[in-house]
Amino acid sequence: MAQMTMIQAITEAMRTELGNDENVLVFGEDVGHNGGVFRATEGLQDEFGEERVFDTPLAESGINGMAIGLALTGFRPVPEIQFFGFVFETMDAISGQMARYRFRTGGTKSMPITIRSPFGGGVHTPELHADSLEGLMAQQPGLKVVIPSNPYDAKGLLIQSIRDNDPVIFLEHMKLYRSFREEVPEEEYTVELGKANVKREGSDVTLVAYGAMVHSALKAAEQLEEDGVSAEVIDLRTVSPVDYETILESVKKTNRAVMIQEAQKQAGIASSVAAEIQEKAILHLEAPVMRVTAPDTVYPFTQAEGVWLPDHTSIIEKVESVMNF
Amino acid sequence: MKRTLENIENQFETFQILNEEGEIVNEDAVPELSDDDLKEIMRRMVYTRILDQRSIALNRQGRLGFYAPTAGQEASQLGSQYALEQADYILPGYRDVPQLIWQGLPLYKAFLFSKGHYVGNQMPDGLNAVSPQIIIGAQITQAAGVGIGFKKRGEEAVAITYTGDGGASQGDFYEGVNFAGALGGQNIFVVQNNQFAISVPVEKQSAAQTIAQKAVAAGIEGIQVDGMDVLAVYAVTKDARERAINGEGPTLIETLTYRYGPHTMAGDDPTRYRTEDMNDEWEKKDPIVRFRKYLESKDLWNEDEENKVIEKAKEEIKAAIKEADNTPKQKVTDLMDIMYEELPQSLKEQREEYAEKESK
């Protein structure tokens, strides 16, 4: 076992799959010689050559359109979108095209593509570099949307995503890239897509989070413990499709739930999970399902992000109002 | 300061082999085609014209769904398709159903595509193609990917994609030709310039005098061809294919053509944007009339031959529409089953709901 940061675990996952399957290709802007702007692909071009790990022209729609064509010729592409705020440039290639290919070809052609992309706030980026846009992706049937919260999951989920025969949007929270290390097995392993993880068991309230917010939820849970509130923390890991079974099982035990997302409040993952809980488990609930989210504005890059982003204190406040309802 | 635009534009001439009278005007460029090949090309064009007439009629009777008329564009569509091999990959636009048919798509499937049935999108074994793209230009970046994939695999095959003059204004057009150039794709990009993007004339699409010259900025070959001359279209496509496979890079082909009918059968009225004079002028260039004259001059074609093709087309179309009508209707649960390789937990429940509705 080795101590790894999340970004090292991500590189390791790509190295593993480039080694396992000659059809795996890694490409995007600056991913070749430079190893990616975050060094996620560091060393991969040297190891696997320019035919398999390569720089593309600077055009996001072209990158993902090309990925589709490469998939049609039997490759397993792993394109990178340098920052997920640039996804607007390639919405058609993703939502209009690759997500629909299996359907559009009557189930005869699959799109085994994994689009990796950094996202998430709190790292003082310019505009359109930090936005949480997973909700846009989750609304598109045909896609899977995966967001790891730690190095171990990142490696196992990315290997599984690359092996999956449906298109996966693999979003990497920038704040987690190098914020901590943990034990990550050197050998290959997978983490199932579409399966949530109970990170902490509790009996009074269920906190559902993903990405960096998992850590805020865990921090909140620790403080709540001191106040005598036992919080269960669920890490979704895959935000589309959502593992409702694990969530409902937990809520039926705790009878209270708080949804946590870094994205704006309107039309996100938190809202759809909250709706599902109320449809399926209303009689188990002691209080309304509440949401902790960012406000419905565009992302306030750099200046006001500290206040804009939800954190453990906003989670604690919401839990208190659920407990005292 | 040296100005270059005029010099570049002057170099793009329209390539032609057969003139409007069906006479050879470019002897050196006449492609090597046997008499059987020439007759087969004629047969396909006549058949496709009948298919177009029947499809329009079937659409008006409510027996077909989405349909984009093809008459006028036969030389562009079938001349380029005839230059392909079975290993090649076609990424068509929505008007490019004939190329799929002659490359191996059964007629009833073309009708099912029109009716929005997913079985129409299932290509038979041996046909390397995707179904016609609806989003203008989205197939161009994908075609670059297929062409780059062929190069990576060392395959003797090209990816050919079709769009129109409007499609050449899309960002995806520029991105696709640029990617193919930069990454060495084995590609042919065909722009069928039929003069109008629905109602907007080509002059309003771009300040560029030709669409072919857009190749220059991508560093690839570009050629403008008389798109009503099937021999010329065949010859430039054949040449582009050979160069692509020999590692000499992709080619952008602009075919000058005209659609006689409306944009689609969904209510477009071409009299709002085209004049009778303009229609007459283009009909004088008709690809079938011209090629018939050429073949007749070589004693390869006569009225009898043509009538045989027309009768055969009518019979086959009748059988194919029947087969399409007899295909079991598509269900919502069918669609759910092909959204993902495996049905996700969350969709299973919705599937049960619809399976129950469908069982009633």
Give a written overview of the molecule.
The complex is a heterodimer of chains A (325) and B (360). Chain A has 325 residues and is an alpha/beta fold. Chain A has 2 domains: 2-184, Thiamin diphosphate (ThDP)-binding fold, Pyr/PP domains (Rossmann fold), CATH 3.40.50; 197-324, 3-Layer(aba) Sandwich (Rossmann fold). Helices cover 36% and strands 20% of the residues of chain A. In chain A, helix 3 packs parallel to helix 4 (91-97), helix 8 (213-226) packs across helix 12 (312-323) and helix 9 packs across helix 10. The longest helix of chain A has 15 residues, at 6-20. In chain B, the strands form 2 sheets. Chain B has a 6-stranded parallel sheet with strand order 1-7-8-4-3-2, sandwiched between helices. In chain B, strands 5-6 form a two-stranded antiparallel sheet. In chain B, strand 3, helix 7 and strand 4 form a beta-alpha-beta unit. In chain B, helix 2 (35-60) runs antiparallel to helix 11 (287-297) and helix 2 crosses helix 12.
Number of helices of chain A: 12
**Which CATH-level-2 architecture of the largest domain in chain B?**
3-Layer(aba) Sandwich
Lateral strand order in the biggest sheet of chain A: 9-11-10-13-14
CATH homologous superfamily classification of the largest domain in chain A: Thiamin diphosphate (ThDP)-binding fold, Pyr/PP domains
CATH topology of the largest domain in chain B: Rossmann fold
Strand order of the largest sheet of chain B: 1-7-8-4-3-2
As for the number of domains of chain A, it is 2
Number of strands of chain A: 14
- Uncertain parts of chain B: none
Could you state the CATH homologous superfamily of the largest domain in chain B? Thiamin diphosphate (ThDP)-binding fold, Pyr/PP domains
Oligomeric grouping of the chains: heterodimer
User: What is the helix content of chain B?
Assistant: 40-55%
Termini Cα gap of chain A? 46 Å
SSE sequence of chain B, one letter per element: HEHHEHHHEHEEEHEHEHHHHH
